[in-house]
UniProtKB/TrEMBL annotation:
PROSITE patterns: VOC. This is Glyoxalase. SUPFAM superfamilies: Glyoxalase/Bleomycin resistance protein/Dihydroxybiphenyl dioxygenase. It comes from the Bacteria. It comes from Dyella japonica DSM 16301. InterPro entries: Glyas_Bleomycin-R_OHBP_Dase (IPR029068), Glyas_Fos-R_dOase_dom (IPR004360), VOC_core (IPR037523).
Length: 142
């Protein structure tokens, strides 16, 4: 049996074209597998997908209950504090809403939070205890 993996994270969005522009402004690259209904963005070993919020709820047979805070964040880990600051500035310029300016964290790192145009939370962080492999993937100890 293979190790558990997350292959795709799908975000339900209210305006697919706007969200695609937003994420492409950060440097994500849309796959040619994208179409008018879904966008697949390449991100290292995983994929971030953008799909209409109503369509996603319908596909999952779930009621769409906006919560304000969904108790989930997505994270991007940097190799330095300066990289966090640069990523943060790029996201803000693309239309993100700042929630927490990058700052020293109680756990010894440096991080900040922002929200994309649909309110999905992102943490940009530098963790001095994390190591990346040759492909830029997070290499956690066993």
């Amino acid at each position: 049996m293979s190790a558990p993996r997350i292959h795709i994270v799908t975000l339900g969005v209210s305006d697919l074209a706007r969200s695609r522009r937003f994420y492409e402004a950060w440097g994500w690259k849309a796959s040619s597998a994208s179409n008018d209904n879904i966008v697949f963005l390449k991100g290292g070993a995983g994929v971030l997908a953008l799909y209409g919020r109503d369509a996603l709820a319908e596909d999952a047979l779930a009621e769409d209950l906006p919560t304000g805070f969904a108790a989930i964040t997505l994270a991007r880990n940097a190799s330095s504090k300066d990289e966090v600051d640069a990523w943060f500035a790029t996201a803000l310029a693309a239309g993100a809403r700042e929630l927490k300016t990058p700052q020293e964290a109680f756990w010894g790192g440096y991080s900040g939070y922002l929200a994309d145009p649909d309110g999905h939370l992102w943490e940009f962080a530098f963790n001095p205890y994390f190591v990346f492999d040759d492909h830029g993937n997070l290499a956690l100890p066993d």
